[in-house]
C-alpha cells in the first residue's frame, strides 16, 4: 500500500520496539510503526495480496526486496509471538526471498494454487491430530 | 612322580628278585611272597595315582589352552574395538546445517499464544474447505465425489449422470474451482429442480443455508482482502491519498484537537454574545435615561412657556412649541417625534 518513494540506500532501520505502555511513540496515521509493520507482514500471507504487490511492480523494486529482508525480524522473538497467522506469514516471508517466486506470483495460476494449498492445509493439519 | 614310580618298581623288582633267589635256593619263604604282593599292590596304587596325575595334567593343559584362546579372543575383541573406534572417529560425518537459534519460552506463554492464534489457524466446526474429513483421500478426489462438500455427509443413492453434477454444484459451489468443475449448465435452475424432483430427501439449493449455516463456508488461514482493506495500512493510504503526511499524524489526536477548537470557538461566541447583550442593555438604559431627561426638560420648558408666554417671539419657536404642546397632549406618539428630532 505504501506509495512513499523508496530508495535503495535508505538506511537500514532497527526493528520497532515491541509494544509497551509508553504513549509517546511517534504515530503514523494514528498507528505505531510496530502496528503497521505487523499488519503488513501478515498481509503477505494472503496470496492475492502478493499478487497485488507484484502487479504494482513492487516485487522487482530492490528497495522493497530489502524491506522484505528486513521484515525477517518477525521470525524472531520477541516479535514472533505477535503473529496471529504464523504459518502462512513465515512461509510467505521465506518464499519472497526467492527471485523466482517473486517473478511468478504475478501469475493467477500460482495464486490460485497457493490459495487451494493453503485452504487444504488449513483444515488438514489437525485432521489426525 | 617318576622317582616315586621308579622306587616302587625297584621295590617290586627287588622283592621279585629275592623271591626268585629264594626259590632258586629252594628255600621259599612266605614272607618274601607277602613282600612281593605288598610291593605289587603299592605299584598298582602308584599307577592309579599316575593315571590321575596324567588326567590332571591333561586337564591343566586343556585349561591353559582355553585361557590362551580366551586371551586371544579378548585381544582380538579389544583390537577390533580399537580399530572400530578409530574408524568411527575417522568417518566423515554429514554436518547438518545449524537448525537456527533456539529460544526459550514458558508453557504459559505457549498456551497463551495457542489460544490467541487458534481463531486464525483452526477452521470453525463444519467447515472443511471441500476436503473430505472422513477419508484420507486427497482434496482432488473429494472434490470429484459429489456428496462430500459441505461438511455434511448425505446418504444418497446414485443417480443419473446429470443429477450428481447438480448436487456437486451447490455442495462445492463456494470452493473456488474444483478440478472437476461441473459444467456451467449444471448450475442452472432446471438441473437443481430436476434433482429436487427426483430425490425427495435432497433440499433445494436455496434452502440449504437455512439448515446448515456453514454450508459452503470456507476457511482461509490468512487475512482476507476485507481485513486488509479495513486495516491500518488502508487508513494510512487514505491519508496519503488525501494529501496528509501520515508521519506524526494521529486522527484521534486530530479529532481531539478539533473538538477542543470547536469548544473554544463556542465559548468565544458565547462570550461575545454575552458582551453584546450587555452592551445592548447599556445602550438601551442610556437611551431610556436620555429620553426621560428630555421629557423632563420638555415638561420644564412647557411649564416655562406657559408662564412666560411667547418670550422668544420667533414664529418658528412658537410653532414648534405649539407642536410640542400638541404632541404632549397626544402622548403616545411622543417618543417617535423625539427620535425624529
Summary keywords:
heterodimer, A: 129 residues, mainly alpha, Arc Repressor Mutant, subunit A, 0% strand, disordered N terminus, B: mainly alpha
Explain what the structure shows:
- The complex is a heterodimer of chains A (129) and B (341).
- Chain A has 6 helices and no strands.
- Chain A has one domain (33-124): Arc Repressor Mutant, subunit A (Orthogonal Bundle), CATH 1.10.10.
- Residues 1-5 of chain A have low confidence and may be disordered.
- With 129 residues, chain A is mostly helical.
- In chain A, 32% of the residues are buried.
- Chain A is globular and about 45 Å long.
- Chain B is mainly alpha-helical and 341 residues long.
- Chain B folds into 3 domains: 2-68; 123-221, no CATH class; 223-300, no CATH class.
- Chain B is 66% helix and 0% strand.
- Chain B is rod-shaped, with a radius of gyration of 68 Å.
- Chain B starts with a helix and ends with a helix.
- The model of chain B is unreliable at 136-197 and 310-319 (pLDDT under 50).
Amino acid at each position: 500500500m505504501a506509495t512513499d518513494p523508496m530508495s535503495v540506500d535508505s538506511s537500514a532501520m532497527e526493528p520497532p520496539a515491541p509494544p509497551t505502555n509508553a504513549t509517546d511513540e511517534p504515530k503514523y496515521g494514528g498507528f505505531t510503526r510496530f502496528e503497521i509493520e505487523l499488519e503488513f507482514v501478515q498481509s503477505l500471507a494472503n496470496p492475492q495480496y502478493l499478487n497485488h504487490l507484484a502487479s504494482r511492480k513492487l516485487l522487482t523494486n530492490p528497495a522493497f526486496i530489502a524491506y522484505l529482508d528486513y521484515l525477517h525480524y518477525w521470525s524472531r522473538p520477541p516479535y514472533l509471538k505477535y503473529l496471529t497467522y504464523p504459518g502462512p506469514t513465515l512461509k510467505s516471508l521465506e518464499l519472497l526471498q526467492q527471485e523466482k517466486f517473486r517473478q511468478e506470483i504475478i501469475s493467477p495460476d500460482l495464486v490460485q494454487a497457493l490459495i487451494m494449498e493453503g485452504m487444504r492445509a488449513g483444515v488438514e493439519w489437525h485432521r489426525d491430530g | 612322580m617318576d622317582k616315586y614310580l621308579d622306587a616302587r618298581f625297584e621295590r617290586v623288582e627287588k622283592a621279585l628278585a629275592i623271591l626268585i633267589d629264594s626259590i632258586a635256593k629252594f628255600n621259599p619263604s612266605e614272607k618274601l611272597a607277602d613282600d612281593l604282593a605288598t610291593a605289587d599292590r603299592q605299584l598298582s596304587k602308584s599307577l592309579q595315582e599316575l593315571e590321575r596325575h596324567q588326567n590332571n595334567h591333561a586337564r591343566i593343559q586343556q585349561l591353559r589352552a582355553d585361557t590362551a584362546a580366551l586371551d586371544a579372543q579378548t585381544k582380538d575383541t579389544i583390537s577390533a574395538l580399537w580399530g572400530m573406534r578409530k574408524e568411527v572417529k575417522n568417518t566423515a560425518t554429514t554436518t547438518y546445517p545449524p537448525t537456527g537459534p533456539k529460544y526459550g519460552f514458558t508453557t504459559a506463554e505457549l498456551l497463551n499464544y495457542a489460544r490467541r492464534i487458534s481463531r486464525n489457524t483452526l477452521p470453525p466446526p463444519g467447515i472443511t474447505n471441500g476436503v473430505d474429513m472422513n477419508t484420507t483421500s486427497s482434496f482432488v478426489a473429494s472434490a470429484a465425489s459429489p456428496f462430500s462438500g459441505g461438511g455434511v455427509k448425505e446418504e444418497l443413492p446414485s443417480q443419473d449422470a446429470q443429477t450428481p453434477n447438480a448436487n456437486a454444484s451447490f455442495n462445492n459451489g463456494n470452493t473456488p474451482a474444483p478440478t472437476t468443475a461441473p459444467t456451467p449448465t449444471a448450475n442452472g435452475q432446471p438441473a437443481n429442480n430436476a434433482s429436487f424432483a427426483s430425490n425427495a430427501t435432497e433440499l433445494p439449493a436455496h434452502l440449504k443455508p437455512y439448515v446448515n449455516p456453514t454450508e459452503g463456508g470456507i476457511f482461509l488461514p490468512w487475512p482476507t482482502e476485507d481485513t486488509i482493506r479495513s486495516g491500518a495500512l488502508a487508513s494510512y493510504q487514505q491519508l496519503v491519498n488525501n494529501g496528509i503526511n501520515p508521519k506524526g499524524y494521529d486522527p484521534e489526536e486530530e479529532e481531539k484537537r478539533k473538538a477542543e477548537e470547536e469548544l473554544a470557538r463556542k465559548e468565544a461566541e458565547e462570550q461575545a454574545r454575552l458582551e453584546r447583550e450587555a452592551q445592548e442593555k447599556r445602550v438601551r438604559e442610556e437611551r431610556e435615561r436620555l429620553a426621560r431627561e428630555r421629557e423632563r426638560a420638555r415638561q420644564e420648558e412647557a411649564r416655562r412657556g406657559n408662564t412666560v408666554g411667547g418670550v422668544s417671539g420667533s414664529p418658528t419657536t412658537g410653532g414648534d412649541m405649539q407642536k410640542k404642546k400638541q404632541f404632549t397632549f397626544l402622548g403616545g406618539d411622543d417618543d417617535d417625534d423625539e427620535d425624529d428630532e
